[in-house]
Protein 1
Amino acid sequence: MKPINFLKKILSKKASQFLPASAYILISGTVGKTLALTAANLVLSSKYKTLAIQTSGNSFLNIWPNTEKVLIEISPLDRLEIEEKLNILKPQIGVVTMATFGSLEDFQKTESFSNLTYFVQSFPEDANVILNWDDLPSRKLAELTPAKVFFVGSDSVNCHLFASQIKTRNGRTLLELNYGVERVEIEVETLGLGGVNGVMLACAIGLLSEMSLFTIKKTLEGFKPLEHRMKLVEGLEGLTILDDTYDATLIGIDDSLDIIGLLPARHRFFILGGLEHSDLLEQDLKRLAQKICNDKVVDYIFTGGSISPFIEELERLGFAGKVEVGLSRSQIVGRVLTLVRIGDLVLIKGPRSTKMDEIVSRITKQTK
């Protein structure tokens, strides 16, 4: 490590100790961390002087004496960072956005499960850990922590905060948030279950930070979709684009496919640049193909690579739409612009390494 970076790291540790443990909120999980962090920052900032830290490093140097809350996003793969932040800060609120990674059996074999287990086990009895009841691996983590567990989800019996009456209308999500005897209706621009989960986690953080449900609702209604995360964009030739090119986890693909089934369209295109962790999830790739065939909402599939188990299963099931495999980004753009008509919907997904966001840029209607 360079001397200047080492000095910044030491100063950052010192700065982090200026605030009480109750100021710190740690957010980890396999998906949805940045969305939860951003939404929670919006909520807390309406009452507290808040700092949101997306990456590890020297961000603690931004702490000022009047800082009241610090939100910190941590990768479940970074064990050293998890240990350091827990040992130094001793936070009173921890969040696991989701812990899903294929099947529960597969997930328990991963490094992420080991690190998230350590994460929840490190919170003391007087701390709070927020978990998603609808995510089965998160329920497993609830059994392993000595802290007080605050569940969010859709189960009215087992969740402290639960969502109900979830609907999609005009590219927005409407839902009810229920907390004890309180209930509020909320309308947000985020789409999909991932967006609902982020809203609920931010709400839970606000409630545990002594904010009212009504205040949280009013703040969250101003929340905007994050760039390249389930964002509706106006495209060329009268098409609508669902830009979800931030990643290509299987749970994210499931969510985005569900959303395009709810949105009105003449034809629906599914563009997939590739998959994350595809070597681990052959059975899930086959399940994805089965979902597409059963739901019958996709008319065209273009892929940037040959995802064999997925394509083979589509062929075996007799997918009724058109499939084109191994296309370059330029070829995908050409095929889309040749085939689309007014009223068509194009879902674009892929790991950041595949640069599928470039396709979004090339078929998006430019505003003057």
Protein 2
Amino acid sequence: MVTVRLFALLALLVASALTMSCTAENSSNDVVDLPESAQSSSEPAGGSIPTSTTPGVALSPEELAAVASAPSISLVEAKIDSIRLRVKPGNFFRYRLTQRTSSTQDSVVAVTTGTHVYHIRVKSIRPDGSVEVGMQFDSITLGLEARKVDTREVVSQSSYNSADTANFRDVRNINYSALIGEEVTVIISPQGEAIQVSDVGAIVNKIVAAFPDKNRMTPQVKSYITEQVKTSMFTTFIAQQFVPYPQGTVSAKGTWSRKQETPIGTLFTVMTDTDYKITGVKKVDNHLIATVEASVTGSMKLGAPPPDATSKLVLNRSKITGSSEAVLDVTTGMTIRKVNRLSQDVTATTSAIDMPDSRVLSQKQDIIFTVELLP
């Protein structure tokens, strides 16, 4: 089942293509060192908004419940000329992200599911408008079932629940258990992009301590694990949560576009073209609530393999299509609900290192990510 696991990893990483955004075309998600002179501010992140709203005031549970039935207003009346993060230190947001992936590879159909509950605590606002937050995973549940297409025979099945003591303490689940309860500092740009992830040392140390072959835990392998934790569990989750907001103003029609090449860890680069449009606006007390729809097309390319790789992978063909619908609080720039749908068609050739034999793999995947703000 190595092949199934390989493509499951590929699905998780590529899924962020729908929402992952860089500040400019061909830019990367490498850590950005901010100036030491940057000082914290108690003011909300910048950008003009209608005077009828109050920046930095998060939706109350009652206001959150009222969003679905709130009255609609026109885009002209809303006067939304920009969308960006406008939060204040002390703001607290709790989210649930659910994932369902259906994959068909050769003669096997695999369905993976996952639910991650995490929270974001706003620590400070920097002079450039970027936001320093503490992000922490509170619970994780995962499931995998793979069946043969013709006989429906189960060929692989597994599950994980961080609330289950046996699951949590099983060293085979350390990649998930190590995340629980560890707050990591993330710097988020005004446009909703994770531009710096730090403080993952506690998580990585837990993973390293459970590594079965200590002789293979070289500095290069530890560095690789560190980057994968930063990317796959923090940068990617921020990308799934936020709509990439425009660098400048929103057009009179409520539209903007993004074209980017996004490194996903060290393994892949996803190239996407995405169009966004505000399709509806509501008002809840002093909060403007916007619905933003998006469509994406793209492809991907492979990067260098990890230092301990025992097989080679050559990407022959890839196609990505997707859409998303997000409901967001324009007042704070925070997501209320977002559904990302992604389909990918991939053909690759895999072989063991230094071995002539190879195998051509084809896989089609349908992935749905749902992000919800919890009361």
Protein 3
Amino acid sequence: MFELQTELLINVRNYVTVCNPKALQNTKDALHNIMAKKRDVLYDVGDAALEVDTFQDEIINAILKVEKFLKPHLKK
């Protein structure tokens, strides 16, 4: 789960940097190249319907594992 959190954090940070008008163009270009080589975990709701969302599936599976582990230890 921590790997998925890190992947999301890096993608958000890169996206924000690319959108920052004060960021250097060389930095933006480098980040565009990096982002093009990695899977897309940031998208609009409309985009989500067009393709399989493996990142979301991985997040859900990780959360289910945590829930399965914690459930016997929680009182109802």
Protein 4
Amino acid sequence: MKSKMAIALIMIFGIVITGCKQKEQEVEEVKVDLLNDEFPDAKQEVGRLWIVLSKV
């Protein structure tokens, strides 16, 4: 009984490891430079918020 349980656990562990490796290959890395890139939409929204808050 213990040997069947051990074999089943080893098989499940192997399937999980194989599944994780397949998912890692599909991931594409997106290069975004958050420090140096300009974000005009966000900048405009912050400007509007600043004007509204300065009037209060």
